[in-house]
Amino acid sequence: MDPGYFFALLGFLASAYASYSFFSGSFSKSKRKAQTSLKRGEQLTYLSFIFFLISYLILTYYFLIHDFSYYYVYSYSDTKLSTAYLISAVWAGREGSLLLWILYLALLSVLALKLDRKDRVLATSLGMILAFTSALALLILTASNPFVKMDFTPPEGYGLNPLLRTPEMALHPPTIFLGYAAGIFPFAYAASSLLHGEEWRTRVRFWTLLAWIFLSVGILLGGWWAYKTLGWGGYWAWDPVENASLLPWITATALLHGIMRKKFEAINYYLALATAVLVILATFITRSGIIESVHAFGENPEGPVYLFYLAALIVVGVAVERKVKLKMEINLEPRELTIFLKILIFLLSLVTILLGTLAPTLFNVAVGREYYNKIEIPLGVLLVIVLGICVSLDWVYRKEVFLKRIKISSAIGLLSFAAAYAATKLIIASIGVGIFVFSLIPHLLTLKQGINVKKVGGYVTHIGLLLLFIGVMGSWIYEEHYRLRLNVNEETNIKDCSLHLKSVRFYEDEEKSVVEAIVEVFEGGKHAATLQPKQLFYKLMRQDRVVSGVDIESKLTKDYYMAISGFGKDYVFVEFYIVPLVSFVWIGATLMIIGGAISASKRL
């Protein structure tokens, strides 16, 4: 038996037994038996983490020594791959990323033992989480075994997909899977707390924030990778796998808002359940091969197993709620209504994205970007408006203060709209500026009264969202795209820009052959950018070995973006984009993550 497989097996046995021990201990009527079971469960939790860690490190070692007798190592690496990308190649495929997810679940279980108070709620929560961990580990031992050896050892590996040889894509999977792992915890804590009749909002909030932060980082890295690697001038294509990671992020965001109100207990519980369910659904979308996506793994036999896990989780979740019979109360108090309206907007977005993602498979209906843009952009606008109103209401509703803030915000928002329209003559952009300012002003007015540590994390996140809103509107609505042939030492004019191809050069290194163009961009007669797009031809056996080396000149108000689509000795065909305000997408998303981290730090 392979050592890596052996330790994965030990990890499976330890996590399964730990789950049983926690369940038996948390529901035992004998105090002595309960203590014994809980102590055993704690020890086995540490053991399961150690076993999964050793298994993962052994797989990493096989990559580092180029042991191509292992089919998984052969499929995702080659001898020319740098050490950093050899390490990232471990999670590049279906089997390795699953083992990483399992390792994260085990690690977070240990973290829960270290950070949380040791009571029946924690024990039952870990019982659920470790049961899920062992269910995933069972797949490693069967359908997704990365330790399968071939009958011979090839002299060279098939190689890592060149598109994955970027820092962003090296970091994107581990952050997303850490978010997925943390996304199971809110439901486990909520269900366990209800079963034991305990308050659960504080504990669930921390784990929801943790999941939200890492999902946000993963989504941001994925968007930045798509923007700078794929050569189509965008960062979000509404691809099913992109949507898959967004879905649990939406429910986690809604839960973070709902959890502020105890009266929303029923909807909060189901949001926690939905987050865990959507994590499994995201895994199914990525791994089943049933839903077509450029990011998905190929078809494999484990796909239906995830649907079984998903169904089992829903049954458990509904059974717990039926046992305790949660109530949902909503009164006409203004702040409570605005929070509920925000949750409703998130849920509408969730449903429409889910329908668009599954429609091609379930209903054989093609869904393009137009569908999402027509629905999600208006919902985003409505969310930003409601956000401004909600912050104007403050934590304690005072009618006079609220009306004063709304009047000031509305007046400055209208002035901003008028100024933007006078400067640009662009009606949609001007409306966006007006809405942005309307929502921003209440945040500034509130902070002017003094920084409340309870608010600052949320407000930083909100301001980041407002900047993201402006960036998305500018980059999606006003992006300019040109397909051009550029000849050496000739000038090509488009609108206010002129492009001058200085040279085309060809060179190679040990890993790849490269075609590089040097293009000067002038706007309004002034030098604006020097772009050096490339086309990279990797020396691999795989068919997908050609990658566009996008070059971007980023400024605060716009990006000049170019990718090569074809070439000759003294000419190139290029995709040239001018992308307005896209820098605000990256700044806003980063601020949102910083705000989430500030909020989560209060728990530590």
Largest sheet: 6 strands, antiparallel
Helix content: 55-70%
The computed structural class is alpha+beta
Tell me the overall shape.
flat
| Average pLDDT metric | 91
Low-confidence segments, ≥5 residues, pLDDT <50? Answer: none
Along the chain, the helix and strand elements come as HHHHHHHHHHHHHHHHHEEEEEEEEEEH
Number of discrete domains: 4
Cα distance spanning the termini: 42 Å
Number of beta strands: 10
Give me the number of helical elements: 18
Radius of gyration: 26 Å
Beta-strand content: 5-15%
Layout of secondary structure:
Blueprint: H1 3-26, H2 31-64, H3 71-76, H4 83-89, H5 94-115, H6 120-141, H7 167-183, H8 185-195, H9 201-229, H10 240-258, H11 265-287, H12 303-324, H13 334-362, H14 369-393, H15 399-424, H16 427-448, H17 453-477, E1 480-487, E2 491-494, E3 497-508, E4 512-523, E5 526-531, E6 534-538, E7 546-549, E8 551-554, E9 558-567, E10 571-580, H18 583-601
Antiparallel strand pairs: 1-10, 2-3, 3-4, 4-5, 4-6, 6-7, 8-9, 9-10
Helix pairs in contact: 1-2, 1-6, 2-5, 5-6, 5-7, 6-8, 7-9, 8-9, 8-11, 8-12, 9-10, 9-18, 10-11, 10-13, 11-12, 13-14, 14-15, 14-16, 14-17, 15-16, 16-17, 17-18
